[in-house]
Amino acid sequence: MSVRAAQSPLAAIANAPYLLLSFTALLWAINMVIGRYMVGAVPPITTACVRWLLATLILLPFAWRQIVRDAPLLRRHFWRLVLLSSTGIASYNAMSYYGLQYTQALNGLLLQSISPLLVAVWSLLLFRDGLSLGQTVGVFISLAGVLIIISGGSIDTLLHLTLNAGDIWIMVALAIYAFYTAILRVRPPLGPLSFLAAIMAIGGVLLLPVMAWELTHGAELHFNRFTLGVFAYVSTAPSLLAYLAFNRGVQLVGANRAAPFFHLMPVFGTALAILFLGETFAWFHAAGYALVLTGILTATRAKGAKPA
């Protein structure tokens, strides 16, 4: 077998944007559930800070050669990296974990459904990129599927959903992350590993003073098997693997085509509840999954809109 043939499966995955974006949604759905489950055991800002510092340390040996090669670009584009890190790494994750202290994981997963619309708004405002009719239809079909899953097919449930402080924090975090998604197109021309290492390291450093404030104002961190397990997961799967996959997926298909895959997060979240928490599969799950997949296919296969 030739070297080229041996490398082809990995190359195929790296060039399969919809597989990468689906994988990202799965890892982030698990992260959302864990973020709610750890309430009271691990302080939210501390979780975000340790997550990115640990992820940086894990990635550093693999990214070092790219970092050395890209050192001039890292210095030249430092403030652009700070902008990308403060929005896509520091602010979004810290605010999401903080919001989950006051709301349910179900609410957090539901709120993810507004992400494609937020990405479309930022893309239009910043780059004058509009959604085509097909992309718009796809987004709303997927949104309808998500609402069916979360509500259990009951309009009454949707009408009585209420927002609390945690929901508002998560909504602001999503608006910030949508901004990050939209501006990924102007990321510096760095290697994927050096880029990710840079924004993770900057994000961790930006969160250090906030973590210090949190720990000196009553928050407690207890090191045990649970907290160590939380740190092990959040610093690897939803950080290293998911961000590499997400950044690559957006690079290949653009922000507006990638955004509908956020709708897979509540789909995966309910599927995990069925598999591991013993919840029953019902008609509204099947209907919601069908609509989400139909919407994603519609949005990804539609032609992009011309610049406004």
Features:
disordered N terminus, globular, about 75% helix, single chain, about 300 residues, mainly alpha
Q: Which percent range fits the helix content?
A: over 70%
The whole-angstrom Rg is: 19 Å
Distance between the termini: 50 Å
Rough outline: globular
What structural class do you assign from the helix and strand content? mainly alpha
Q: How many DSSP H or I helices?
A: 16
Overall pLDDT, averaged?
A: 85
The count of DSSP E runs of length 2 or more, i.e. the number of strands, is: 0
The poorly predicted ranges are: 1-6
| Biggest β-sheet description | none
Pfam family, one: EamA
Subcellular location: Cell membrane
Domain EamA: 18-150, 165-298
Membrane topology: Multi-pass membrane protein
Please tell me about this protein's structure:
The chain has one domain. The protein is built from 16 helices and no strands. Helices cover 77% and strands 0% of the residues. It is mainly α. The longest helix is centred in the first third of the chain and has 26 residues, at 44-69.
Strand and helix map with partners:
Blueprint: H1 3-14, H2 17-37, H3 44-69, H4 71-76, H5 78-99, H6 105-111, H7 115-127, H8 133-151, H9 155-159, H10 165-183, H11 192-215, H12 225-234, H13 237-253, H14 255-258, H15 264-276, H16 283-301
Helix pairs in contact: 2-6, 2-13, 2-15, 3-5, 3-11, 5-10, 5-11, 7-10, 8-16
In short:
The protein has about 300 residues and is mainly alpha-helical. The protein has helices at about 5-15, 15-35, 45-70, 70-75, 80-100, 105-110, 115-125, 135-150, 155-160, 165-185, 190-215, 225-235, 235-255, 255-260, 265-275, 285-300. InterPro entries: Diverse_Substrate_Transporter, EamA_dom, EmrE-like.
